[in-house]
Description:
- InterPro entries: MFS_dom, MFS_trans_sf, TM_effector.
- Residues 147-399 form the Major facilitator superfamily (MFS) profile domain.
- One of its GO terms (cellular component) is plasma membrane.
- It is a multi-pass membrane protein.
- By secondary structure, the protein is mainly alpha-helical.
- The protein folds into two domains: 1-164, no CATH class; 185-399, Growth Hormone, Chain: A, CATH 1.20.1250.20.
- Helices cover 78% and strands 0% of the residues.
- The protein is globular.
Amino acid sequence: MTIVAVGLHIYDLTGSTLAVALVALFALVPMIVFGLYGGVLADAFDRRIVALVTAIVAWTSTAGIAVFAWLDVQVVWPLYVLTTINAVASVVIGATRQAITPRLLPTRLLPAASALGGISMGVMVTVGPALAGLLVATVGISWTYTIDVVLFTAAFLGIFTLPRIVPEGERQSAGLESVLFGLRFLKTAPNLRMTFVLDIIAMTFGQPRALFPAVGALLIGGGPVTVGILTAAGAVGTLLSSVFSGRLGHVRWQGRAVGRAIMVYGACILGFGIVLAVVAFGGFTGTGQNIADANLPALIAAAVLLAGSGAADNVSSIFRVTILQASAPDVMRGRLQGIFTVVVTGGPRLGDLYIGVLALTGALWFPPLLGGLIIIVLVATIVRVQGSFRRYDALAPTP
């Protein structure tokens, strides 16, 4: 809710799309840095305390945004500062929470926990923006922030009920050497390293979101409504695959499952590119910014394929998170979750760069078509070569 409301707030103050985009740009480097350092904190101190303190920081930053809105401050830099603080606190909470989960559950339930995370994410990125838009339109930006501040207090209830969770094993001081130690450990953990490599491949070559505005304006038609449908489709796929993910907990060869899920993801992105190519070469281009003038069959096909990509990516994520949580030593889990956060944060940005460069050809269908092929070929080859990952056994997890 707050992310969407901040974008609307800044646009209302400036009338600039660039000013809105700067929210993500300013937060990117701090998120990467504190994604790593947050993992160090989770491995050095009581994880309950780390989660509680960072939740308080996140809540305070959201409350600060609400105060600025109520005071009707007509400058944007406080919003940049507070949203960056909120983003940094969120990544630290995320790394800490993921390191806590394996201490609360037996290994056999970790896939179910990851699936619940997928449900949470799916609801967040579908219901949250819609609710924010509705609230801003009806009660205003200030009340939208305030409602989110009240809802945020629920986060404290779960953290307060946790027991003391001190990392098991030899702890290191929370400094740079601890970060470097985590990176050195990853060199000796081929299965964990593979989960990161495969995710980077998928996110670099299979993130067509930067194309959606042009697709809605120039190819399928339908303007902003088409962009909204294509954007939401992936989240819908994530949500549905999590809801029906019960059988994933019985999968034993999880390394193979990761490889196959990412290849299905690549196939869906390839299919999306084919749909765009058919529209472009067949002369079926939609016209205008009205959804009634769009190429509806192409829009439906594209949305279904993007939903499939979201579902496959979520299945891959469930197994990748499970492999990390089950095989990593407890005293290393925070740092490895921090690296995971960096990969998840940076991968889509590389994907946007890949799409942007290839889109200069003027062929909107080319980046997803080529990207899907690259994903399928690279993942199939790497999984084939890396035999230990292909043989990863959930009953005997090894990093």
